[in-house]
Amino acid sequence: MKAVVVTHYGPPEEYTIADVPVPRPGPGQLQVRIAAASINPADIRLPSGAFHDFAPLEFPHVPGNDFAGTVSEVGAGVISYRVGDEIFGQAVPRALRAMAGANRPSLSTGSLAEYAVFEADTPFLAHRPPNLSVEQAAALPTTGLTARALMATANIQPGETVLVIGATGGVGTAVLPLLAGVKAQVIATSTTADAPTIRALGATRTIGYAEAEYPSDVDVALNLTLPSDQLTAVAAAVRPGGRLLTITYPVPEQGWIGRDDVELLFVLDMDGTYGGMREVGELAARGELPATIGRRYTLDQGVQACVDFARAHTTGKLLVTI
């Protein structure tokens, strides 16, 4: 089969498109004919060697976490899915098993390929709702899960002011409609070109990326892009007693933000505590969680998609159709 293939640690410019053996499902697993996949930070960070010490890769490595496709084979013991089922979801490379959650981890052989194998018994795979397109389904898994976890953790009340750092990315464009749905007043960082899109998704106001443009006395700040050891300026924008939530590494420490009167929360839900792919699909099917797709690529352009994710400004998700 054809796949995006990484043969050694390095930048995405060194990935290739190559033929690799079709993975076969074992007991409790299923094989999926991938229709579309979207790019996530782990697709770049893992092959860079950044996590080599605790999550070494075996090469050749096929990146790709998010997908939508058709079940093409099921292993022994699988009862939740049948051949021909349309499904979507999120699964991390097997090298990340230790980080994939204590219960029913979602692991795969990599979705930037014509076929991939997944664990069947996980909340991070689900049947695709009939009114959710393949492209939308492939773009939503990681961003939808993260957006829902942020909303559940932040417990935002109507009228609260929320500062969103990194609103133009995949998670940002997913969480903005949810914030609008609870009637929050949203101030979002954005480029001038992206501002109309960000406002259409639910932002009340857009600002530039410079720290000098951050407002003051916001109730909640959501950091979706800055390293979590560089959040002093974001914390300074939060009122005493407010909340600062971040999804980026390193795992933050209270002392780093220079505030003990701001609640600092790291959001990473690897067990589906706040719901899994079924809940993401239901929200999307009701039109409450749209996916913003910034660029589309074919599998033959899969390496370029990874390069663009790493090097270019992107809006929403980068989608690869297989």
Low-confidence runs: none
- What's the overall average pLDDT, rounded? 96
CATH topology-level name of the largest domain: Quinone Oxidoreductase, Chain A, domain 1
Which CATH class of the largest domain is shown?
Alpha Beta
Element order: H for helix, E for strand: EEEHEEEEEEHHEHEHEEHEEHEHE
Shape: globular
Biggest sheet details: 7 strands, mixed
Please state the second-level CATH architecture of the largest domain. Answer: Alpha-Beta Complex
Q: In CATH, what is the homologous superfamily of the largest domain? A: Medium-chain alcohol dehydrogenases, catalytic domain
What is the number of strand segments?
A: 17
Strand content: 25-35%
How far is the first residue's CA from the last residue's CA?
Answer: 11 Å
Radius of gyration: 19 Å
- Total number of domains: 2
